[in-house]
């Protein structure tokens, strides 16, 4: 597999028809990041000497580089409109990237692939500073990568690190359990299940299977945050990154209501830590985890692009609000100065 300057064409992602945004058309190139491991990605745009960091977007779960409902593709293009270079990569074994057998630990695998992607952008285009973006498992992977790589100066985590608080349970009861308890059809369904189970005469093994299934569902809900770090460990890690000057933006959707369900929960979770004004966050309660509706994706895109514009010194920030799926600005800090978007930082 030999291509000049690491460029290639992928079967599922041929160069798109030019779709101008203002005077600019999309500038996208499929590239081979590492020929030895068949690691591939899509580079979008190149900074025209403004000194902005490059953005690296990684897979969400087992999805390829396009992202859920084209979330990554459209985000890369919107960032390009603001002058950011980005690369959307397929982690080894996902999408068009070949599998690797020399690394068994997933965190190490992702870290190595991110190293290669950043090395590629440095070698080919001169970038030495990077912003990492990831959703769900990708959020966890990028957070851990930033801990050990000082080239990373920015992070965007979507539906990543989060922990239940006392207020979370209050909201869960008042706005989830209580309204549902007043819906007659739910009681009718519960009674039907009970009646059917008595009629069928479930044996002990059936009961154990049901109990096991319930435990699995409960376990799945507890894993939605996709982290093996405690609240204290996560707070210390974010605090460490903040002290290093890493700018971080945490975005949460209504799709992770199993552990995050109200505006300002991030504040309550990490109230004991000093993030030095480097952390912001936003909550989109109407959005699902994969942002299936276009209007929800647009709201998330605007929020992230606005954060990037503010964080890395580019004028003319775009707006944050959407007609639907609107998220609250972060209320982080206690009486701290507000940014132009209304976010507060510590």
Q: What composes the largest sheet? A: 8 strands, mixed
Provide the domain count.
2
Radius of gyration: 22 Å
**Low-confidence sequence ranges:** 1-5, 11-24, 214-223, 315-326, 331-344
Structural class: alpha/beta
Count of strand segments: 8
Give the DSSP E fraction (strand runs of 2 or more residues): 5-15%
Average pLDDT: 81
CATH superfamily of the largest domain: Alpha/Beta hydrolase fold, catalytic domain
The CATH architecture of the largest domain would be: 3-Layer(aba) Sandwich
Note the gap between the termini: 49 Å
Order of helices and strands: EEEHEHEHEHHHHEHEH
CATH class of the largest domain: Alpha Beta
Helix percent reads 25-40%
Strand order of the largest sheet: 1-2-4-3-5-6-7-8
- Within the CATH hierarchy, at the fold level, what is the topology of the largest domain? Rossmann fold
Q: Outline, from the CA principal axes?
A: globular
Tally the helices.
Answer: 9
Which tags fit this structure?
346 residues; alpha/beta; Rossmann fold; 2 domains; eight-stranded mixed β-sheet; 9 helices; 38% helix; disordered N terminus
List the helices and strands and how they pair.
Elements: E1 28-34, E2 39-44, E3 54-57, H1 71-81, E4 86-89, H2 106-125, E5 130-135, H3 137-148, E6 152-158, H4 166-181, H5 184-200, H6 204-222, H7 231-243, E7 247-253, H8 265-269, E8 279-284, H9 294-311
Description:
The protein is of the alpha/beta class and 346 residues long. It folds into 2 domains: 4-163 and 230-311, Rossmann fold; 175-222. It is built from 9 helices and 8 strands. It has helices spanning 71-81, 106-125, 137-148, 166-181, 184-200, 204-222, 231-243, 265-269, 294-311; strands at residues 28-34, 39-44, 54-57, 86-89, 130-135, 152-158, 247-253, 279-284. Strands 1-2-4-3-5-6-7-8 form an 8-stranded mixed sheet, with helices on both faces. A hairpin with a 4-residue loop joins strand 1 and strand 2 (39-44). Helix 2 (106-125) packs across helix 3 (137-148) and helix 3 packs across helix 7 (231-243). The radius of gyration is 22 Å and the shape is globular. The N and C termini lie far apart (49 Å).
């Amino acid at each position: 597999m030999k291509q000049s300057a690491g460029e290639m064409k992928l079967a599922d992602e041929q160069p798109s028809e030019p779709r101008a945004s203002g005077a600019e058309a999309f500038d996208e190139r499929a590239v081979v990041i590492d020929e030895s491991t068949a690691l591939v990605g899509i580079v979008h745009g190149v900074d025209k000497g403004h000194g902005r960091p490059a953005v690296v977007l990684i897979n969400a779960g087992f999805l390829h580089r396009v992202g859920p409902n084209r979330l990554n593709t459209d985000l890369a293009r919107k960032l390009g409109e603001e002058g950011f270079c980005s690369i959307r990569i397929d982690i080894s074994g996902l999408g068009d990237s070949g599998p690797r057998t020399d690394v068994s630990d997933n965190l190490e695998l992702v870290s190595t692939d991110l190293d290669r992607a950043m090395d590629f952008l440095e070698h080919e285009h001169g970038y030495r500073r990077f912003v990492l973006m990831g959703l769900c498992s990708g959020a966890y992977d990028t957070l851990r990568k930033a801990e050990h790589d000082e080239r990373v100066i920015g992070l965007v985590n979507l539906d990543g690190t989060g922990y239940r608080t006392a207020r979370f349970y209050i909201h869960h009861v008042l706005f989830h359990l209580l309204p549902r308890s007043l819906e007659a059809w739910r009681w009718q369904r519960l009674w039907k299940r009970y009646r059917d189970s008595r009629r069928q005469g479930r044996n002990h093994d059936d009961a154990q299977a049901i109990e096991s299934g319930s435990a699995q569902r409960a376990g799945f809900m507890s894993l939605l945050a996709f982290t093996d770090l405690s609240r204290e460990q996560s707070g210390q890690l974010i605090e460490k990154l903040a002290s290093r000057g890493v700018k971080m933006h945490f975005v949460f959707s209504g799709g992770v209501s199993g552990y995050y369900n109200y505006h300002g929960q991030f504040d309550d979770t990490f109230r004991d830590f000093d993030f030095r004004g480097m952390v912001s966050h936003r909550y989109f309660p109407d959005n699902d985890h994969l942002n299936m509706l276009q209007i929800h994706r647009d709201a998330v895109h605007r929020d992230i692009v606005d954060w990037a514009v503010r964080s890395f010194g580019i004028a003319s920030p775009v707006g944050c609000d959407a007609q639907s799926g609107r998220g609250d600005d972060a209320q982080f800090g206690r009486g701290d100065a507000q940014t132009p978007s209304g976010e507060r930082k510590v």
